[in-house]
């Protein structure tokens, strides 16, 4: 037997949420600075009655004398290249067109499902993006969604609004100045931060988590404006944020560079663009996050939004491990979530944020933190699988006996020759497993040794990016490396067939792989495994899939039979019970 030496990571999976990450439309990007009446009208729509939030008694969007004085005081001190931002005769950002503008025009008090369906159905690219997100494991662990009405209903209006706004913002990048990568990175980070804020809000039952998504997304308006006007200034500001630890020093350096603190510029722009008061107040540079548990609605709102943004900043930048832990601690203590629940939300937020950005064709900088741990082990440094004693493996054999000679009889598998004893020994082994790593190792070896299956492959989802499948264990093959590599890849781009397996509840017996539609199976997998017939099944903890198992027979000319499928089900059912027991679900 040839066995790969691997390590299996498992997160602490929480219960799947039906609703996805949410956001209200980023309407601020499409407002003409000279169209104040229109701006006020659509702004109230897009914030989806932000005044209903228990944050401010008044949400007046008129510019008071004090606010006008603030803008007037900033303009002369501002760096010359940034002064056009406050020039009423020019636009500081490109206007989003087509679908995004149509949503603004058609929305009443808020975008309705009918409006969204009409807009999305007219845009093939947007249709593909919405369906891609709706079918991702992060948002839909069991369902396969093929119709836009189903996708809108399943994802929820807030998530679909966010997708529409983000899609058209990204489309406008082709009209923006050079060095678009800075803008793409900024938009991607904003989407991930907004997803974190939404997921933490949902976890603590915040009344309107979609408002958190909107606020976190809009928090980047100042940086977007600076990046549009002068990419060099923006990059210099980013360097200050990365390299300056103390807030006072950071504000001082920002002021020397652009004339005013970065957040003061963002606050003035937010006022000029008629954003609601609760969003403008997020840019209050004098206000630090409340230490400890947040006691009021304004503290919670600010803590979730700014805390999520700060966490993503240190996780995607050059923040130290200490900075990451401090940002996580602020969110955990403020929200009041338990350590286990906080870890679950961290994993889900990162996963969903990455799916949103990927659907937009964006890439987030490498996260420097593992985000969560399971059973005391880091997800990026999991415990090692303990190998059983090596037994002779059934190696690949030609399946073409000589003409006129009968096929060689195969010895009966233990599950057939002595089923009760075999199953009892298997159950005892599962009971002795202390973690999911060792339990899955027992399962895979039992399929190979006791169920009579010649080749077994195990692949697991990346817990923080469930679009990525990673080959972890291969038995009955030599050498294992190419087999494991061929199992790995993106579900949406390389393994659509495996994605359909992960959405299933029961195992699938595939009589002939040649019957599968072209392009649904990674070519590398076909070239390495040469599958004829096989059994594939999802591995689930609760309702969420964590990976899949592949097994076949190659030591005889017969394809996988019904009795092989029945034996496989016996082992899988006991393994599923064991996984859920260890996860605390049973």
Set down the secondary structure blueprint.
Blueprint (H helix, E strand, L loop, with lengths): L35 H11 L18 H10 L23 H9 L6 H9 L2 H11 L13 H8 L1 H15 L8 H24 L5 H10 L2 H9 L1 H13 L3 H12 L3 H11 L4 H4 L16 H20 L4 H15 L3 H21 L13 E2 L2 E2 L35 H4 L1 H14 L3 H14 L5 E8 L2 E11 L4 H8 L1 E2 L5 H7 L5 E3 L12 H7 L4 E8 L2 E9 L9 H21 L4
Helix pairs in contact: 2-13, 3-4, 4-6, 5-6, 8-9, 8-10, 8-15, 8-17, 9-15, 10-11, 11-12, 15-16, 19-20, 19-24, 20-24, 21-23
Quick structural overview:
The protein has helices at residues 36-46, 65-74, 98-106, 113-121, 124-134, 148-155, 157-171, 180-203, 209-218, 221-229, 231-243, 247-258, 262-272, 277-280, 297-316, 321-335, 339-359, 414-417, 419-432, 436-449, 480-487, 496-502, 523-529, 562-582, and strands at residues 373-374, 377-378, 455-462, 465-475, 489-490, 508-510, 534-541, 544-552.
The CATH C-level class name of the largest domain: Mainly Alpha
- What does the largest sheet look like? 6 strands, antiparallel
Low-confidence stretches: 1-62, 94-109, 369-398, 400-408
What is the straight-line distance between the termini? 34 Å
Q: What kind of oligomer do you see? A: single chain
Structural features, described:
The chain is of the alpha+beta class and 586 residues long. It has two domains: 27-377, Orthogonal Bundle (Hypothetical protein af1432), CATH 1.10.3210; 385-582, Beta-Lactamase. It has helices at 36-46, 65-74, 98-106, 113-121, 124-134, 148-155, 157-171, 180-203, 209-218, 221-229, 231-243, 247-258, 262-272, 277-280, 297-316, 321-335, 339-359, 414-417, 419-432, 436-449, 480-487, 496-502, 523-529, 562-582, and strands at 373-374, 377-378, 455-462, 465-475, 489-490, 508-510, 534-541, 544-552. The protein has a six-stranded antiparallel sheet with strand order 5-4-3-8-7-6, sandwiched between helices. The radius of gyration is 27 Å and the shape is elongated. The model is unreliable at 1-62, 94-109, 369-398 and 400-408 (pLDDT under 50).
């Amino acid at each position: 037997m040839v066995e790969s030496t691997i390590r299996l990571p498992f997160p602490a999976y929480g219960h799947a949420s039906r609703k996805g990450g949410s956001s209200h439309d980023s309407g601020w990007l499409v407002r003409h600075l000279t169209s104040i009446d229109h701006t006020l009208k659509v702004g109230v729509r897009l914030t989806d009655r932000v005044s209903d939030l228990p944050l401010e008694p008044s949400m007046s969007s008129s510019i008071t004398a004090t606010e006008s004085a603030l803008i007037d005081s900033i303009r002369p001190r501002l760096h010359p290249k940034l002064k056009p931002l406050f020039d009423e005769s020019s636009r500081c950002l490109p206007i989003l067109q087509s679908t995004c503008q149509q949503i603004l025009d058609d929305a009443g008090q808020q975008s309705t499902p009918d409006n969204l369906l009409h807009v999305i159905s007219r845009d093939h690219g947007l249709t593909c993006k919405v369906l891609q997100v709706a079918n991702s494991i992060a948002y839909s662990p069991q369902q396969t969604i093929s119709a836009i009405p189903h996708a809108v209903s399943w994802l929820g209006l807030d998530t679909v609004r966010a997708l529409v706004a983000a899609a058209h913002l990204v489309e406008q990048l082709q009209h923006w100045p050079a060095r678009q990568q800075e803008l793409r990175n900024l938009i991607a980070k904003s989407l991930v931060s907004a997803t974190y804020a939404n997921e933490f809000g949902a976890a603590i039952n915040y009344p309107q988590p979609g408002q958190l998504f909107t606020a976190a997304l809009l928090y980047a308006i100042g940086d977007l404006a600076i990046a549009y006007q002068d990419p060099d200034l923006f990059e210099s500001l980013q360097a200050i944020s990365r390299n300056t630890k103390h807030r006072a020093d950071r504000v001082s350096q920002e002021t020397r560079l652009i004339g005013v603190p970065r957040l003061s510029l963002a606050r003035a722009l937010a006022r000029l663009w008629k954003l609601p008061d609760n969003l403008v107040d997020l840019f209050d540079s004098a206000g630090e996050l409340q230490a400890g548990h947040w006691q009021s609605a304004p503290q919670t709102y600010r803590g979730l939004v700014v805390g999520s943004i700060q966490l993503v900043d240190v996780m995607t930048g050059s923040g130290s491990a200490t900075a990451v832990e401090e940002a996580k601690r602020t969110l955990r203590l403020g929200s009041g979530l338990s350590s286990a629940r906080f870890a679950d939300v961290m994993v889900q937020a990162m996963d969903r944020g990455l799916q949103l950005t990927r659907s937009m064709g964006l890439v987030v900088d490498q996260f420097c933190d593992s985000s969560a741990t399971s059973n005391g082990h880091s997800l990026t440094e999991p415990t090692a699988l303990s190998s059983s004693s090596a037994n002779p493996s059934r190696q690949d054999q030609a399946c073409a006996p000589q003409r006129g000679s009968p096929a060689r009889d195969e010895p009966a598998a233990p599950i057939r020759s002595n089923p009760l004893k075999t199953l009892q020994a298997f159950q005892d082994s599962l009971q002795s497993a202390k973690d999911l790593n060792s339990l899955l190792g027992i399962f895979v070896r039992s399929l190979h040794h006791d169920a009579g299956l010649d080749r077994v492959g195990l692949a697991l989802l990346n817990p923080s990016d469930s679009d990525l499948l990673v080959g972890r264990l291969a038995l009955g093959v030599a050498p294992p490396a190419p087999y494991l590599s061929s199992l790995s890849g993106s579900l949406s781009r390389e393994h659509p067939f495996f994605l359909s397996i992960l959405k299933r509840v029961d195992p699938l017996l595939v009589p002939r792989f040649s019957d599968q539609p072209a392009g649904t199976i990674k070519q590398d997998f076909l070239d390495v495994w040469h599958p004829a017939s096989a059994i594939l099944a999802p591995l689930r903890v609760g309702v969420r899939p964590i990976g899949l198992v592949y097994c076949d027979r190659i030591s005889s000319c017969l394809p996988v039979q019904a009795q092989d499928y029945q034996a496989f089900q016996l082992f899988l059912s006991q393994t599923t019970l064991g996984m859920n027991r260890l996860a605390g679900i049973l």
